[in-house]
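If I may wish for something, please sit down with the protein I am sending here and say whether C-alpha coordinates and residues agree:
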Amino acid sequence: AMDGLMLALKDKSNTIRSTAANALQNLGGEAGRAARAELNREQLLEAQRSEPDTRSYSREELIATIQDPDREYPLPLKYLVPILPVPASVEQAPFLATVHAGEDGLERLTFWKRTGVDRYQKVKVVDCDPGNQEHFDVPITFHAMVQVKTAGGPQVEERGFFVNVPIKWNWGRNDQIFAVDSDGLHSVEIESPQVPNPEKKYPAVSRVPDPGSYHQLEWSFPIRDGGEVTGTYKVVKDETENPPTWKMVVATAEWERPSQEVEASKKLADVPQLIGELKGSDLQRRRDAAYKLSNIEPMPPEAIQALAEAAKTMDPKEPLPAGTQAPAQSTVTAAGTTHTTSAPVTRSESPQTCEIAIRSLGSAAQRDSMVWPILIDALKGCSSPKPAAEELAKFGGSVLPLLLKALKDKDPRARAGAAEAMGLMVKPPVVERYFDPDRPFGTAVRLTSASAAAALAPAIPGLAEALQDPDSSVRNQAAITLALASPNDKQAVPILVQLVGGADHPLREAALAALDGMGESAKDAVPAVERVLETEKDRREVGEAAHVLGSIAGAAACEPLAHAIADGKDSFVRQCAVAAMGQLWPACPETIPTLMGTFGGDDQVAFSSVRVLRKIGGPAMPALTMALKSSD
Protein backbone atom coordinates (compact mmCIF):
# COMPACT_ATOMS: atom_id res chain seq x y z
CA ALA A 1 0.00 0.00 0.00
CA MET A 2 2.92 2.38 0.74
CA ASP A 3 4.30 1.97 -2.79
CA GLY A 4 0.87 2.61 -4.23
CA LEU A 5 0.40 5.82 -2.23
CA MET A 6 3.86 7.08 -3.23
CA LEU A 7 2.89 6.44 -6.84
CA ALA A 8 -0.35 8.34 -6.27
CA LEU A 9 1.65 11.45 -5.21
CA LYS A 10 2.73 11.74 -8.86
CA ASP A 11 -0.73 11.24 -10.32
CA LYS A 12 -2.14 13.80 -12.79
CA SER A 13 -5.32 14.14 -10.70
CA ASN A 14 -5.25 16.81 -7.97
CA THR A 15 -7.77 14.82 -5.94
CA ILE A 16 -5.68 11.65 -5.97
CA ARG A 17 -2.46 13.52 -5.10
CA SER A 18 -4.18 15.35 -2.25
CA THR A 19 -5.73 12.15 -0.84
CA ALA A 20 -2.39 10.35 -0.91
CA ALA A 21 -0.57 13.31 0.66
CA ASN A 22 -3.06 13.48 3.55
CA ALA A 23 -2.59 9.74 4.16
CA LEU A 24 1.24 10.00 4.25
CA GLN A 25 1.89 13.42 5.82
CA ASN A 26 2.44 12.17 9.38
CA LEU A 27 4.98 9.51 8.40
CA GLY A 28 8.72 9.94 8.65
CA GLY A 29 11.35 9.48 5.95
CA GLU A 30 10.95 10.12 2.25
CA ALA A 31 7.21 9.37 2.16
CA GLY A 32 6.39 12.00 4.81
CA ARG A 33 8.63 14.65 3.22
CA ALA A 34 7.12 14.09 -0.21
CA ALA A 35 3.58 14.26 1.20
CA ARG A 36 4.21 17.48 3.11
CA ALA A 37 5.82 19.05 0.04
CA GLU A 38 2.74 18.20 -2.00
CA LEU A 39 0.43 19.72 0.63
CA ASN A 40 2.52 22.93 0.73
CA ARG A 41 2.31 23.15 -3.06
CA GLU A 42 -1.50 22.77 -2.90
CA GLN A 43 -1.78 25.52 -0.27
CA LEU A 44 0.20 27.89 -2.49
CA LEU A 45 -2.04 27.14 -5.47
CA GLU A 46 -5.17 27.60 -3.33
CA ALA A 47 -3.92 31.01 -2.19
CA GLN A 48 -3.41 32.01 -5.80
CA ARG A 49 -6.91 30.76 -6.74
CA SER A 50 -8.53 32.73 -3.91
CA GLU A 51 -7.78 36.07 -5.59
CA PRO A 52 -10.99 38.12 -5.94
CA ASP A 53 -13.05 37.72 -9.09
CA THR A 54 -12.48 40.97 -11.02
CA ARG A 55 -14.51 40.02 -14.06
CA SER A 56 -17.26 42.43 -15.17
CA TYR A 57 -20.78 40.97 -15.47
CA SER A 58 -23.93 42.22 -17.15
CA ARG A 59 -27.30 42.12 -15.37
CA GLU A 60 -28.38 39.34 -17.71
CA GLU A 61 -25.38 37.27 -16.63
CA LEU A 62 -25.87 37.74 -12.90
CA ILE A 63 -29.53 36.62 -13.01
CA ALA A 64 -28.83 33.68 -15.34
CA THR A 65 -29.05 30.09 -14.07
CA ILE A 66 -25.72 29.02 -12.55
CA GLN A 67 -24.22 25.93 -14.18
CA ASP A 68 -21.63 24.84 -11.59
CA PRO A 69 -19.49 21.93 -12.86
CA ASP A 70 -19.07 20.73 -9.27
CA ARG A 71 -22.84 20.50 -8.68
CA GLU A 72 -25.28 17.90 -10.01
CA TYR A 73 -28.15 20.37 -10.39
CA PRO A 74 -28.20 23.88 -11.91
CA LEU A 75 -29.08 26.86 -9.71
CA PRO A 76 -31.86 29.06 -11.16
CA LEU A 77 -32.54 32.56 -9.77
CA LYS A 78 -34.72 32.74 -6.64
CA TYR A 79 -34.37 36.39 -5.55
CA LEU A 80 -32.96 39.63 -6.99
CA VAL A 81 -32.91 42.46 -4.44
CA PRO A 82 -31.50 45.99 -4.94
CA ILE A 83 -29.41 47.27 -2.03
CA LEU A 84 -29.68 51.04 -1.75
CA PRO A 85 -30.52 53.56 0.99
CA VAL A 86 -33.67 54.91 -0.69
CA PRO A 87 -36.31 53.28 -2.91
CA ALA A 88 -35.19 53.31 -6.55
CA SER A 89 -34.98 51.07 -9.60
CA VAL A 90 -32.67 48.08 -9.85
CA GLU A 91 -30.55 49.93 -12.42
CA GLN A 92 -29.75 52.71 -9.91
CA ALA A 93 -28.76 50.44 -7.02
CA PRO A 94 -25.04 50.56 -6.12
CA PHE A 95 -25.28 46.94 -4.95
CA LEU A 96 -27.46 43.95 -5.82
CA ALA A 97 -28.07 40.68 -4.01
CA THR A 98 -29.03 37.50 -5.86
CA VAL A 99 -30.04 34.15 -4.44
CA HIS A 100 -29.92 31.08 -6.69
CA ALA A 101 -31.39 27.73 -5.56
CA GLY A 102 -30.93 24.18 -6.88
CA GLU A 103 -33.10 21.07 -6.62
CA ASP A 104 -30.57 19.46 -4.25
CA GLY A 105 -31.18 22.13 -1.61
CA LEU A 106 -28.05 24.20 -2.22
CA GLU A 107 -28.64 27.96 -2.30
CA ARG A 108 -26.03 30.56 -3.24
CA LEU A 109 -26.14 34.20 -2.14
CA THR A 110 -24.06 36.64 -4.23
CA PHE A 111 -23.51 40.35 -3.67
CA TRP A 112 -22.73 42.50 -6.73
CA LYS A 113 -21.25 46.01 -6.93
CA ARG A 114 -22.38 48.27 -9.78
CA THR A 115 -19.30 49.53 -11.68
CA GLY A 116 -20.96 51.14 -14.70
CA VAL A 117 -23.99 51.04 -16.95
CA ASP A 118 -25.16 47.43 -16.84
CA ARG A 119 -21.79 46.34 -15.43
CA TYR A 120 -21.36 44.58 -12.07
CA GLN A 121 -18.52 43.01 -10.12
CA LYS A 122 -18.88 40.07 -7.76
CA VAL A 123 -17.92 41.12 -4.20
CA LYS A 124 -19.10 38.27 -1.94
CA VAL A 125 -20.45 34.72 -2.33
CA VAL A 126 -22.10 32.71 0.47
CA ASP A 127 -23.42 29.13 0.13
CA CYS A 128 -26.03 27.73 2.51
CA ASP A 129 -25.69 24.30 4.12
CA PRO A 130 -28.17 21.85 2.50
CA GLY A 131 -27.44 19.38 5.29
CA ASN A 132 -29.21 21.69 7.75
CA GLN A 133 -31.93 22.48 5.20
CA GLU A 134 -30.82 26.12 5.21
CA HIS A 135 -32.59 28.60 2.94
CA PHE A 136 -31.90 32.28 2.29
CA ASP A 137 -34.96 34.44 2.85
CA VAL A 138 -35.53 37.76 1.07
CA PRO A 139 -32.67 40.17 1.99
CA ILE A 140 -33.88 43.37 3.69
CA THR A 141 -32.13 46.69 4.34
CA PHE A 142 -32.16 49.14 7.26
CA HIS A 143 -30.38 52.17 8.73
CA ALA A 144 -28.88 52.46 12.22
CA MET A 145 -26.60 54.84 14.06
CA VAL A 146 -23.04 53.54 14.45
CA GLN A 147 -20.58 54.29 17.23
CA VAL A 148 -17.17 54.70 15.59
CA LYS A 149 -14.12 53.94 17.70
CA THR A 150 -10.97 55.70 16.42
CA ALA A 151 -7.36 55.57 17.57
CA GLY A 152 -6.62 58.27 20.16
CA GLY A 153 -9.83 60.18 19.56
CA PRO A 154 -13.31 60.35 21.04
CA GLN A 155 -16.05 58.08 19.82
CA VAL A 156 -18.24 59.63 17.16
CA GLU A 157 -21.59 58.64 15.71
CA GLU A 158 -22.50 58.29 12.07
CA ARG A 159 -25.48 56.94 10.22
CA GLY A 160 -24.89 53.49 8.73
CA PHE A 161 -26.64 51.43 6.09
CA PHE A 162 -27.02 47.64 6.43
CA VAL A 163 -28.43 44.60 4.67
CA ASN A 164 -29.82 41.63 6.62
CA VAL A 165 -29.96 38.18 4.99
CA PRO A 166 -32.28 35.95 7.10
CA ILE A 167 -31.29 32.29 6.98
CA LYS A 168 -34.08 29.85 7.79
CA TRP A 169 -33.12 26.30 8.70
CA ASN A 170 -34.69 23.19 10.10
CA TRP A 171 -34.32 24.35 13.73
CA GLY A 172 -35.05 28.04 13.45
CA ARG A 173 -33.62 31.19 11.93
CA ASN A 174 -30.37 33.14 11.94
CA ASP A 175 -29.56 36.62 10.65
CA GLN A 176 -26.46 37.44 8.65
CA ILE A 177 -25.90 41.21 8.58
CA PHE A 178 -23.53 43.22 6.41
CA ALA A 179 -22.57 46.91 6.66
CA VAL A 180 -22.70 48.64 3.29
CA ASP A 181 -20.44 51.56 2.35
CA SER A 182 -18.54 52.79 -0.68
CA ASP A 183 -15.86 50.14 -0.12
CA GLY A 184 -18.29 47.24 -0.29
CA LEU A 185 -20.00 44.94 2.20
CA HIS A 186 -18.55 44.06 5.60
CA SER A 187 -19.70 41.23 7.87
CA VAL A 188 -21.22 42.37 11.17
CA GLU A 189 -20.61 40.12 14.17
CA ILE A 190 -23.79 39.77 16.26
CA GLU A 191 -23.42 39.31 19.99
CA SER A 192 -25.81 36.59 21.12
CA PRO A 193 -28.10 37.82 23.92
CA GLN A 194 -28.39 35.26 26.68
CA VAL A 195 -30.98 34.98 29.44
CA PRO A 196 -29.65 37.76 31.67
CA ASN A 197 -28.92 37.51 35.32
CA PRO A 198 -31.50 39.74 37.06
CA GLU A 199 -28.64 41.11 39.20
CA LYS A 200 -26.56 42.10 36.16
CA LYS A 201 -26.93 45.73 35.11
CA TYR A 202 -26.32 46.56 31.48
CA PRO A 203 -24.89 50.02 30.80
CA ALA A 204 -27.44 52.62 29.78
CA VAL A 205 -27.02 53.97 26.27
CA SER A 206 -28.01 57.58 25.79
CA ARG A 207 -29.92 58.45 22.65
CA VAL A 208 -28.83 61.40 20.56
CA PRO A 209 -31.19 64.41 20.74
CA ASP A 210 -32.31 64.03 17.13
CA PRO A 211 -35.73 62.26 17.29
CA GLY A 212 -34.98 60.71 13.91
CA SER A 213 -31.95 58.84 15.27
CA TYR A 214 -31.68 55.12 14.62
CA HIS A 215 -29.41 54.51 17.57
CA GLN A 216 -30.65 51.20 18.91
CA LEU A 217 -32.06 48.03 17.36
CA GLU A 218 -34.61 46.06 19.34
CA TRP A 219 -34.54 42.33 20.03
CA SER A 220 -36.53 39.89 22.17
CA PHE A 221 -36.91 36.19 22.80
CA PRO A 222 -39.16 34.09 25.07
CA ILE A 223 -37.90 32.14 28.06
CA ARG A 224 -38.89 28.48 28.13
CA ASP A 225 -40.18 28.57 31.71
CA GLY A 226 -42.17 31.77 31.19
CA GLY A 227 -41.56 35.43 30.55
CA GLU A 228 -39.56 37.28 27.93
CA VAL A 229 -36.20 38.97 27.55
CA THR A 230 -36.22 42.23 25.62
CA GLY A 231 -33.43 44.65 24.85
CA THR A 232 -31.57 46.71 22.29
CA TYR A 233 -28.42 46.42 20.23
CA LYS A 234 -25.95 49.14 19.36
CA VAL A 235 -23.67 48.97 16.32
CA VAL A 236 -19.95 49.57 16.90
CA LYS A 237 -17.33 50.09 14.19
CA ASP A 238 -13.76 49.71 15.46
CA GLU A 239 -11.39 51.62 13.18
CA THR A 240 -8.41 50.82 15.41
CA GLU A 241 -8.45 47.36 13.82
CA ASN A 242 -7.06 46.74 10.36
CA PRO A 243 -9.31 46.23 8.54
CA PRO A 244 -12.05 47.86 10.67
CA THR A 245 -14.43 45.46 12.43
CA TRP A 246 -18.22 45.75 12.83
CA LYS A 247 -20.21 44.41 15.77
CA MET A 248 -23.77 44.53 17.09
CA VAL A 249 -23.45 44.39 20.88
CA VAL A 250 -26.16 44.16 23.52
CA ALA A 251 -26.82 47.66 24.86
CA THR A 252 -29.77 47.04 27.18
CA ALA A 253 -31.64 43.99 28.42
CA GLU A 254 -34.66 43.48 30.62
CA TRP A 255 -36.08 40.26 31.99
CA GLU A 256 -39.86 40.21 32.34
CA ARG A 257 -41.21 37.19 34.15
CA PRO A 258 -44.70 37.28 35.67
CA SER A 259 -45.51 35.01 38.59
CA GLN A 260 -47.01 31.60 37.86
CA GLU A 261 -50.21 32.55 39.65
CA VAL A 262 -50.65 35.72 37.57
CA GLU A 263 -49.84 33.82 34.38
CA ALA A 264 -52.32 31.01 35.13
CA SER A 265 -55.05 33.46 36.12
CA LYS A 266 -54.60 35.44 32.93
CA LYS A 267 -54.81 32.31 30.78
CA LEU A 268 -58.01 31.12 32.49
CA ALA A 269 -59.58 34.54 32.01
CA ASP A 270 -58.90 34.23 28.28
CA VAL A 271 -60.66 30.85 27.92
CA PRO A 272 -64.18 32.15 27.03
CA GLN A 273 -62.78 34.45 24.37
CA LEU A 274 -60.59 31.67 22.93
CA ILE A 275 -63.55 29.28 22.78
CA GLY A 276 -65.54 31.93 20.92
CA GLU A 277 -62.70 32.39 18.43
CA LEU A 278 -62.37 28.61 18.03
CA LYS A 279 -66.01 28.49 16.93
CA GLY A 280 -65.76 31.57 14.70
CA SER A 281 -65.42 31.87 10.94
CA ASP A 282 -61.93 33.44 10.84
CA LEU A 283 -59.61 30.50 10.08
CA GLN A 284 -56.44 32.06 11.43
CA ARG A 285 -58.15 33.06 14.69
CA ARG A 286 -59.52 29.53 15.03
CA ARG A 287 -56.05 28.04 14.61
CA ASP A 288 -54.46 30.53 16.99
CA ALA A 289 -57.14 29.85 19.61
CA ALA A 290 -56.55 26.08 19.40
CA TYR A 291 -52.81 26.66 19.91
CA LYS A 292 -53.34 28.94 22.90
CA LEU A 293 -55.77 26.57 24.62
CA SER A 294 -53.08 23.87 24.63
CA ASN A 295 -50.97 26.05 26.96
CA ILE A 296 -53.59 26.25 29.68
CA GLU A 297 -52.90 23.94 32.63
CA PRO A 298 -55.08 22.40 33.83
CA MET A 299 -57.38 22.66 30.84
CA PRO A 300 -60.97 23.45 31.96
CA PRO A 301 -63.74 21.03 30.84
CA GLU A 302 -65.40 23.66 28.62
CA ALA A 303 -62.12 24.08 26.68
CA ILE A 304 -61.75 20.29 26.26
CA GLN A 305 -65.33 20.09 24.96
CA ALA A 306 -64.72 22.92 22.46
CA LEU A 307 -61.52 21.27 21.22
CA ALA A 308 -63.31 17.91 20.90
CA GLU A 309 -65.89 19.53 18.63
CA ALA A 310 -63.18 21.31 16.61
CA ALA A 311 -61.32 18.01 16.18
CA LYS A 312 -64.21 16.70 14.07
CA THR A 313 -64.55 19.68 11.73
CA MET A 314 -62.54 20.34 8.57
CA ASP A 315 -61.62 23.90 7.61
CA PRO A 316 -63.02 25.21 4.31
CA LYS A 317 -60.47 25.14 1.52
CA GLU A 318 -58.35 28.22 0.90
CA PRO A 319 -57.36 28.16 -2.81
CA LEU A 320 -54.83 30.72 -3.98
CA PRO A 321 -56.72 33.15 -6.26
CA ALA A 322 -55.59 33.16 -9.88
CA GLY A 323 -53.23 36.01 -10.71
CA THR A 324 -52.35 36.72 -7.08
CA GLN A 325 -49.31 38.96 -6.83
CA ALA A 326 -46.56 38.84 -4.23
CA PRO A 327 -47.74 40.90 -1.24
CA ALA A 328 -45.60 43.73 0.04
CA GLN A 329 -43.90 42.96 3.33
CA SER A 330 -43.06 45.90 5.59
CA THR A 331 -40.34 45.21 8.11
CA VAL A 332 -39.48 47.58 10.92
CA THR A 333 -35.84 46.93 11.70
CA ALA A 334 -34.84 49.99 13.71
CA ALA A 335 -36.60 52.77 15.53
CA GLY A 336 -38.77 54.49 12.96
CA THR A 337 -37.34 52.53 10.01
CA THR A 338 -39.65 50.70 7.63
CA HIS A 339 -38.54 48.89 4.48
CA THR A 340 -40.78 47.16 2.02
CA THR A 341 -39.82 44.08 0.02
CA SER A 342 -41.78 41.60 -2.00
CA ALA A 343 -41.79 37.89 -1.25
CA PRO A 344 -42.90 34.94 -3.37
CA VAL A 345 -46.50 33.88 -2.88
CA THR A 346 -47.03 30.25 -1.94
CA ARG A 347 -50.14 28.28 -1.18
CA SER A 348 -50.85 28.14 2.54
CA GLU A 349 -49.54 25.02 4.24
CA SER A 350 -51.06 25.87 7.63
CA PRO A 351 -52.34 22.85 9.53
CA GLN A 352 -56.09 22.32 9.78
CA THR A 353 -57.79 23.63 12.92
CA CYS A 354 -58.87 20.06 13.66
CA GLU A 355 -55.23 18.92 13.64
CA ILE A 356 -54.23 21.68 16.06
CA ALA A 357 -57.21 20.84 18.27
CA ILE A 358 -56.13 17.19 18.36
CA ARG A 359 -52.57 18.19 19.33
CA SER A 360 -54.00 20.37 22.09
CA LEU A 361 -56.15 17.48 23.32
CA GLY A 362 -53.01 15.34 23.31
CA SER A 363 -51.34 17.84 25.65
CA ALA A 364 -54.35 17.71 27.97
CA ALA A 365 -54.38 13.89 27.82
CA GLN A 366 -50.87 13.78 29.27
CA ARG A 367 -52.32 15.18 32.50
CA ASP A 368 -55.83 13.70 32.34
CA SER A 369 -56.52 10.14 31.12
CA MET A 370 -60.21 11.07 30.83
CA VAL A 371 -59.25 12.77 27.55
CA TRP A 372 -58.11 9.46 26.00
CA PRO A 373 -61.64 8.44 24.86
CA ILE A 374 -62.01 11.86 23.24
CA LEU A 375 -58.84 11.17 21.21
CA ILE A 376 -60.26 7.77 20.25
CA ASP A 377 -63.36 9.55 18.96
CA ALA A 378 -61.12 12.03 17.10
CA LEU A 379 -59.84 9.15 14.95
CA LYS A 380 -63.10 9.59 13.02
CA GLY A 381 -62.58 13.33 12.43
CA CYS A 382 -60.25 15.64 10.54
CA SER A 383 -58.81 14.66 7.15
CA SER A 384 -57.33 11.38 8.40
CA PRO A 385 -56.95 9.41 11.63
CA LYS A 386 -53.20 10.09 11.69
CA PRO A 387 -53.08 13.16 14.04
CA ALA A 388 -55.16 11.41 16.71
CA ALA A 389 -53.24 8.15 16.18
CA GLU A 390 -49.95 9.98 16.77
CA GLU A 391 -51.21 11.45 20.04
CA LEU A 392 -52.62 8.13 21.27
CA ALA A 393 -49.37 6.31 20.47
CA LYS A 394 -47.52 8.49 22.99
CA PHE A 395 -49.30 6.68 25.85
CA GLY A 396 -48.06 3.24 24.84
CA GLY A 397 -49.58 0.13 26.39
CA SER A 398 -51.71 2.14 28.81
CA VAL A 399 -54.13 3.07 26.02
CA LEU A 400 -54.06 -0.37 24.34
CA PRO A 401 -57.45 -1.56 25.75
CA LEU A 402 -59.14 1.46 24.16
CA LEU A 403 -57.35 0.83 20.85
CA LEU A 404 -58.32 -2.86 20.83
CA LYS A 405 -61.94 -1.80 21.29
CA ALA A 406 -61.58 0.78 18.48
CA LEU A 407 -60.13 -1.92 16.23
CA LYS A 408 -63.64 -3.44 16.17
CA ASP A 409 -65.50 -0.12 15.80
CA LYS A 410 -68.20 0.16 13.11
CA ASP A 411 -66.42 3.15 11.59
CA PRO A 412 -63.47 2.09 9.38
CA ARG A 413 -61.65 5.35 10.22
CA ALA A 414 -61.57 4.33 13.88
CA ARG A 415 -60.37 0.80 12.99
CA ALA A 416 -57.63 2.11 10.67
CA GLY A 417 -56.60 4.77 13.19
CA ALA A 418 -56.37 2.24 16.00
CA ALA A 419 -54.12 -0.01 13.92
CA GLU A 420 -51.98 2.98 12.94
CA ALA A 421 -51.64 4.12 16.56
CA MET A 422 -50.41 0.66 17.55
CA GLY A 423 -47.90 0.74 14.71
CA LEU A 424 -46.61 4.12 15.83
CA MET A 425 -45.93 2.65 19.28
CA VAL A 426 -43.35 0.28 17.80
CA LYS A 427 -42.28 2.32 14.78
CA PRO A 428 -38.51 2.91 14.94
CA PRO A 429 -36.98 6.37 14.62
CA VAL A 430 -36.79 7.55 11.03
CA VAL A 431 -33.34 6.73 9.63
CA GLU A 432 -33.38 7.50 5.92
CA ARG A 433 -29.62 7.45 5.29
CA TYR A 434 -29.86 4.47 2.95
CA PHE A 435 -26.63 5.64 1.28
CA ASP A 436 -24.69 5.21 4.54
CA PRO A 437 -22.48 2.07 4.43
CA ASP A 438 -22.71 1.87 8.23
CA ARG A 439 -26.53 1.59 8.22
CA PRO A 440 -27.30 -2.10 8.84
CA PHE A 441 -30.13 -4.11 7.35
CA GLY A 442 -33.19 -4.67 9.48
CA THR A 443 -32.82 -1.32 11.24
CA ALA A 444 -36.49 -1.39 12.17
CA VAL A 445 -36.01 -4.58 14.19
CA ARG A 446 -32.89 -3.28 15.92
CA LEU A 447 -34.33 0.13 16.80
CA THR A 448 -37.80 -0.96 17.85
CA SER A 449 -38.24 -1.07 21.60
CA ALA A 450 -38.54 -4.67 22.76
CA SER A 451 -40.77 -3.60 25.64
CA ALA A 452 -43.07 -1.72 23.24
CA ALA A 453 -43.32 -4.78 20.98
CA ALA A 454 -44.05 -7.00 23.99
CA ALA A 455 -46.78 -4.61 25.10
CA LEU A 456 -48.49 -5.10 21.74
CA ALA A 457 -48.56 -8.89 22.07
CA PRO A 458 -52.27 -8.89 23.08
CA ALA A 459 -53.06 -7.02 19.85
CA ILE A 460 -51.47 -9.55 17.45
CA PRO A 461 -54.63 -11.70 17.01
CA GLY A 462 -56.76 -8.61 16.40
CA LEU A 463 -54.27 -7.23 13.87
CA ALA A 464 -54.14 -10.57 12.06
CA GLU A 465 -57.94 -10.60 11.92
CA ALA A 466 -57.92 -7.02 10.59
CA LEU A 467 -55.95 -8.21 7.56
CA GLN A 468 -59.30 -9.51 6.28
CA ASP A 469 -61.19 -6.25 6.96
CA PRO A 470 -63.47 -5.11 4.09
CA ASP A 471 -61.88 -1.63 4.23
CA SER A 472 -58.49 -1.33 2.50
CA SER A 473 -57.24 1.39 4.87
CA VAL A 474 -57.77 -0.92 7.83
CA ARG A 475 -56.03 -3.81 6.06
CA ASN A 476 -53.07 -1.62 5.08
CA GLN A 477 -52.45 -0.19 8.55
CA ALA A 478 -52.92 -3.60 10.17
CA ALA A 479 -50.34 -5.16 7.83
CA ILE A 480 -47.75 -2.46 8.52
CA THR A 481 -48.27 -2.67 12.29
CA LEU A 482 -48.24 -6.49 12.33
CA ALA A 483 -44.93 -6.54 10.42
CA LEU A 484 -43.38 -4.08 12.87
CA ALA A 485 -44.72 -5.78 16.01
CA SER A 486 -44.11 -9.37 14.86
CA PRO A 487 -41.40 -9.35 12.11
CA ASN A 488 -41.39 -13.13 11.73
CA ASP A 489 -45.12 -13.28 10.97
CA LYS A 490 -45.52 -13.67 7.20
CA GLN A 491 -49.30 -13.03 7.14
CA ALA A 492 -48.77 -9.33 6.36
CA VAL A 493 -46.46 -9.85 3.36
CA PRO A 494 -49.15 -10.11 0.59
CA ILE A 495 -50.68 -6.77 1.60
CA LEU A 496 -47.24 -5.16 1.95
CA VAL A 497 -46.45 -6.36 -1.58
CA GLN A 498 -49.60 -4.61 -2.84
CA LEU A 499 -48.59 -1.39 -1.07
CA VAL A 500 -45.07 -1.51 -2.54
CA GLY A 501 -46.57 -1.79 -6.00
CA GLY A 502 -49.27 0.82 -5.39
CA ALA A 503 -49.43 4.53 -6.14
CA ASP A 504 -49.66 5.82 -2.54
CA HIS A 505 -46.11 7.01 -1.80
CA PRO A 506 -46.36 7.37 2.03
CA LEU A 507 -47.86 3.86 2.28
CA ARG A 508 -45.16 2.50 -0.03
CA GLU A 509 -42.42 3.98 2.15
CA ALA A 510 -44.06 2.58 5.29
CA ALA A 511 -44.39 -0.86 3.67
CA LEU A 512 -40.74 -0.85 2.58
CA ALA A 513 -39.63 0.05 6.11
CA ALA A 514 -41.76 -2.77 7.53
CA LEU A 515 -40.28 -5.25 5.03
CA ASP A 516 -36.76 -4.16 5.98
CA GLY A 517 -37.49 -5.20 9.56
CA MET A 518 -38.83 -8.60 8.45
CA GLY A 519 -35.64 -9.65 6.68
CA GLU A 520 -35.76 -13.07 5.01
CA SER A 521 -39.33 -13.62 6.25
CA ALA A 522 -40.35 -11.23 3.45
CA LYS A 523 -38.70 -13.09 0.57
CA ASP A 524 -42.01 -13.20 -1.30
CA ALA A 525 -41.77 -9.41 -1.64
CA VAL A 526 -38.46 -9.50 -3.55
CA PRO A 527 -39.98 -9.17 -7.08
CA ALA A 528 -42.09 -6.16 -6.03
CA VAL A 529 -39.09 -4.41 -4.44
CA GLU A 530 -36.97 -5.12 -7.53
CA ARG A 531 -39.62 -3.43 -9.71
CA VAL A 532 -39.41 -0.30 -7.52
CA LEU A 533 -35.63 -0.32 -7.94
CA GLU A 534 -35.92 -0.64 -11.72
CA THR A 535 -38.92 1.55 -12.57
CA GLU A 536 -39.79 4.04 -9.80
CA LYS A 537 -38.87 7.70 -10.43
CA ASP A 538 -38.90 8.89 -6.79
CA ARG A 539 -35.19 8.77 -5.93
CA ARG A 540 -35.79 8.44 -2.17
CA GLU A 541 -38.07 5.45 -2.61
CA VAL A 542 -35.65 3.83 -5.07
CA GLY A 543 -32.82 4.33 -2.59
CA GLU A 544 -34.95 2.75 0.14
CA ALA A 545 -35.79 -0.13 -2.21
CA ALA A 546 -32.06 -0.81 -2.79
CA HIS A 547 -31.52 -1.10 0.95
CA VAL A 548 -34.62 -3.26 1.53
CA LEU A 549 -33.74 -5.57 -1.37
CA GLY A 550 -30.40 -6.34 0.25
CA SER A 551 -32.17 -6.93 3.56
CA ILE A 552 -34.79 -9.41 2.34
CA ALA A 553 -33.13 -11.04 -0.70
CA GLY A 554 -29.61 -11.64 0.58
CA ALA A 555 -27.21 -12.86 -2.12
CA ALA A 556 -30.04 -12.81 -4.68
CA ALA A 557 -29.88 -9.00 -4.52
CA CYS A 558 -26.29 -8.89 -5.82
CA GLU A 559 -27.12 -8.79 -9.53
CA PRO A 560 -29.87 -6.11 -9.45
CA LEU A 561 -27.77 -3.96 -7.10
CA ALA A 562 -24.74 -4.25 -9.38
CA HIS A 563 -26.94 -3.26 -12.31
CA ALA A 564 -28.24 -0.20 -10.40
CA ILE A 565 -24.65 0.86 -9.58
CA ALA A 566 -23.26 0.39 -13.09
CA ASP A 567 -26.20 1.63 -15.17
CA GLY A 568 -28.11 3.95 -12.86
CA LYS A 569 -28.34 7.66 -13.71
CA ASP A 570 -29.21 9.05 -10.26
CA SER A 571 -26.24 9.62 -7.96
CA PHE A 572 -28.24 9.17 -4.74
CA VAL A 573 -29.74 5.85 -5.88
CA ARG A 574 -26.32 4.54 -6.92
CA GLN A 575 -24.90 5.48 -3.50
CA CYS A 576 -27.72 3.55 -1.79
CA ALA A 577 -27.03 0.51 -3.96
CA VAL A 578 -23.31 0.75 -3.13
CA ALA A 579 -24.11 0.79 0.60
CA ALA A 580 -26.47 -2.19 0.27
CA MET A 581 -23.94 -4.20 -1.72
CA GLY A 582 -21.31 -3.42 0.89
CA GLN A 583 -23.57 -4.84 3.60
CA LEU A 584 -23.88 -8.06 1.59
CA TRP A 585 -20.13 -8.65 1.39
CA PRO A 586 -18.81 -11.39 1.18
CA ALA A 587 -22.06 -12.99 -0.06
CA CYS A 588 -21.62 -10.96 -3.29
CA PRO A 589 -18.28 -11.91 -4.85
CA GLU A 590 -18.69 -9.17 -7.49
CA THR A 591 -18.80 -6.43 -4.84
CA ILE A 592 -15.16 -5.31 -5.17
CA PRO A 593 -15.00 -5.13 -9.02
CA THR A 594 -18.42 -3.44 -9.15
CA LEU A 595 -17.37 -0.75 -6.68
CA MET A 596 -13.98 -0.28 -8.34
CA GLY A 597 -15.90 0.41 -11.54
CA THR A 598 -17.35 3.58 -10.00
CA PHE A 599 -13.92 5.25 -9.82
CA GLY A 600 -13.44 7.92 -12.46
CA GLY A 601 -17.17 8.70 -12.57
CA ASP A 602 -19.51 10.49 -10.17
CA ASP A 603 -17.39 11.70 -7.22
CA GLN A 604 -20.08 11.06 -4.60
CA VAL A 605 -20.67 7.50 -5.80
CA ALA A 606 -16.91 6.90 -5.88
CA PHE A 607 -16.57 8.23 -2.34
CA SER A 608 -19.33 5.87 -1.15
CA SER A 609 -17.45 2.99 -2.81
CA VAL A 610 -14.25 4.06 -1.04
CA ARG A 611 -16.02 3.91 2.35
CA VAL A 612 -17.31 0.41 1.61
CA LEU A 613 -13.96 -0.84 0.32
CA ARG A 614 -12.26 0.57 3.42
CA LYS A 615 -14.66 -1.50 5.56
CA ILE A 616 -13.91 -4.62 3.47
CA GLY A 617 -10.22 -4.06 4.18
CA GLY A 618 -7.55 -6.56 3.08
CA PRO A 619 -9.51 -8.38 0.34
CA ALA A 620 -9.92 -5.06 -1.50
CA MET A 621 -6.22 -4.11 -1.32
CA PRO A 622 -5.03 -5.83 -4.57
CA ALA A 623 -7.71 -4.09 -6.63
CA LEU A 624 -6.96 -0.73 -5.02
CA THR A 625 -3.21 -1.09 -5.58
CA MET A 626 -3.83 -1.98 -9.22
CA ALA A 627 -6.04 1.09 -9.63
CA LEU A 628 -3.26 3.35 -8.33
CA LYS A 629 -1.11 2.20 -11.27
CA SER A 630 -3.83 2.97 -13.80
CA SER A 631 -3.21 5.67 -16.44
CA ASP A 632 -6.66 7.11 -15.67
